[in-house]
Amino acid sequence: MNIKKLYQLAGLALLILALASCSKAPKHVKLIPDNAMMVVKIDAKKVIDASGAANNDKLKKFIEKNLKDSEMSSEAKKLAQEIVDNPMNAGIDLMQPLFIFVDNSGKDAPVLVGAVDNKNKLTEMLNTLAKESGAEKVSEKEKLNVFVNNNVAVFFDADMLYITAIEAGADVNKMAKAVQAKFEADEKNSMAANEDMNKLFEKQGMMQMLVSGAALENLPQTSNTKNTLPQGLELKDASYIVDLDMKKGTGTLSYEILAKSDKWKQIIDKGDKLAQPIKGRFADYVEKDGIALFANMNGQETLNFFKEMGADKEMDKNSKEMFEKVIGSLDGDMVLSLTGFNVERKMPELFAYITTKDASLVDLVAQITGGAKKQGDNKYELELGDNFYLNFGMKENATYFCLGNAESAFAKAKAPFKKEDIKGAGSYFYANAAFLNKFASQMNGPQAESALELIKQLDYAEVTYAGKGKAAMNVYTKDKDHTLLELLIDFGLKMAE
Fold this sequence. Notes:
By secondary structure, the chain is of the alpha+beta class. Helix content is about 35%, strand content about 30%. It is built from 17 helices and 20 strands. Helix 10 (about 260-275) runs antiparallel to helix 11. About 30% of the residues are buried.
């Protein structure tokens, strides 16, 4: 499918959603089995609000032009225009949540379920599609209306819709009977009564994804993962929720672990003890025009954790002693900052500051590098090329590394981070879009040009771990009057020209 056709269909779907006004309770949640491995929930109204499609004249004109220029019959064009003018003519209640799920086998195709607003209008739309594609019209099987086009099957009644991919030669009658049983069943063995699903409905974003640990437990592909888990920790005792939302100037993707056993809760708590709240000690030395990762590590807790995981079992005596000494010396805030990239030497220019109790880390790096020249007490310099150095040492209970600039250790940044920007988080990652643009500008080809155009719309991105198994990524755009989705749609329309 070419990009113009893709945006035509996507734009049409957005307009249908934007103009719809009817809403019903999500009865179709019961079509999702309670052992589903993954469930995606789409809040159509919020997607449309974020897209701005209802007021996007450029998008409307684009769709109208493509409808006019398409090879569809006049009957199909007429119906398509009617759906754009009044989305209820599609027969689907797109203001209710849509759900996509994958069963616990991981083998069957994803299924989309939704609500029906008008069965007759949905039938008319599918029959028109059948005429265009040469498929059979909608038929009745097992009290359901059934439509099959290529490898896609649509089952629906007056209330609910069930869409899935099918294999060539599949027994549609048998499938209809199985789907009919789902339509007639109560909520008892469905996601409607699932505790994780209730957590998903608490999220306020426009789209969520739930991954069930209980379903992952039974997959052959996860056997290696299960073997690497600490003793007493099982996949089935945790699930995961991702929540996507977009507001003007900001896009947010949040993540949460739903721990169901004491062992999982203990592991999360231990992880939080390793990564203490950031105090912002090194904020003044880090420029906001690059990439930075802040954290606060408790060395002794980290060492205890690694020992519990058995990370030191395969080490010899000397390695184990060095490992314990170096990790045990970590004692607070740390930061890694990427400020540039030396194209000639193909090496990054970066800084690292690590709060340490002693010079164990400095001694280890000096030992490993071998050729580093001592410049004073706990101060070293390693030449990597003409006027390109690795400087490292310890000063005021902080081990530092400077790669690419010999005179920059503990130099105050021109545009530094503010402590309040990062203080309190378990970890904080920051990426300036202008800095990323420097890397993208070195690439060639149409994809590179597209990447550059997209990056120019962005301001910066940040990822924060807040503790308790919760993290969030925020992407900020330069345009504060539109959402990221609106900018992506405009970008797509330009690409389709």
